[in-house]
Write a structure and sequence with these properties.
It is built from eleven helices and eleven strands. The chain is an alpha+beta fold and about 325 residues long. The protein has three domains: about 130 residues, Uridine Diphospho-n-acetylenolpyruvylglucosamine Reductase, domain 3, CATH 3.30.465; about 120 residues, 2-Layer Sandwich (Uridine Diphospho-n-acetylenolpyruvylglucosamine Reductase, domain 2); about 30 residues, no CATH class. Strand 7 and strand 8 form a beta hairpin. The chain is globular. The structure holds flavin-adenine dinucleotide. It comes from Geodia barretti (Barrett's horny sponge).
Amino acid sequence: MLGRREVFRKVTGSCRSALRLVRAASSQAEVPLTAEHYAVKRGDYAQLTELDVQEFHSILSEGEGGGERVVSDPATVAPHNVDWLHNVRGQSQLLLRPRTTREVSRILAHCNNRRLAVVPQGGNTGLVGGSVPVFDEIILSTSLMDKVISLDQTSGVLVCQSGCVLETLSNMLEEKGLIMPLDLGAKGSCQIGGNVSTNAGGLRLLRYGSLHGTVLGLEVVLADGTVLNALSTLRKDNTGYDMKQLFIGSEGTLGVVTAVSILTPPLPNSTNVAFVGCAGFTEVREVYTKAKTMLGEILSGLLSSWTERSWTLC
Ligand SMILES: Cc1cc2nc3c(=O)[nH]c(=O)nc-3n(C[C@H](O)[C@H](O)[C@H](O)COP(=O)(O)OP(=O)(O)OC[C@H]3O[C@@H](n4cnc5c(N)ncnc54)[C@H](O)[C@@H]3O)c2cc1C
């Protein structure tokens, strides 16, 4: 029997190595510019000026590391212009790294007034190019928004900023006998805000359900800088419209997620993993049906792979 960590490493490792090979095959400079590769037209947005950059400096000048949070050095911005798979490349000249919701709000209010385009970026592990600019959009990175706001060990409700890395949260919870309801191969880099914005599934979905169920509340900054506080920690909340659902999976098109309230279940006392050899896909389906019937809600995931291809059912 393999230990839990070993198993996760095996399951996610093969996927990661395949993706790493794809990445290694092209350097950032070789990645085609999205604007040249696809027939897309830049929207009617303003061009960034020195006055805009000065405004961002004044917004992000407070607190520690003020200057470094307005990044225009091309070498530093370059990796943020390229997606994880090295498929698409934008031409942003500016990366902003807020630490607080108020800073995000002031940045977006300014961009909205000036008609400057913005792309939110979490861990930049998305596989569909949504986290990088298409043209010269300003990149708004949440990577410095990495604070845990509260953890109620009785209810298991965790509230944190959106830039917390999934693996960091998992490790922190594990020490307290809790578990994140999602786990995926990109956990060392992806952020909870990115997970919410992509409605990430991952390896624990069969057991704990999708983020539409486990996310209890969100704080989001809308395009004009308005802060929408829907950061409920209540599990049984049947009051009015459930606004947060609109933002789960909306890939930053409706606003920037700045904080997340999420239900974290108890860490299971034991984890068992079975490797089953199947003759074909029909048998895989039979194993899946049987496992669901016999194991019920304790089944966390079922990953199926063979020599040439692999697919997940979890
Ligand atoms: C090895 C590997 C394994 C993966 N496994 C899975 C898997 O099992 N299941 C799965 O669903 N995905 C998987 N992915 C894809 C990816 O990791 C997920 O989509 C992840 O949720 C993205 O998080 P991120 O922080 O990297 O977001 P990013 O890639 O930075 O952004 C993704 C999208 O969300 C938007 N966004 C990011 N942060 C915010 C925010 N705070 N507010 C508003 N919008 C925001 C971006 O604009 C972009 O549109 C995998 C990727 C890799 C590389």
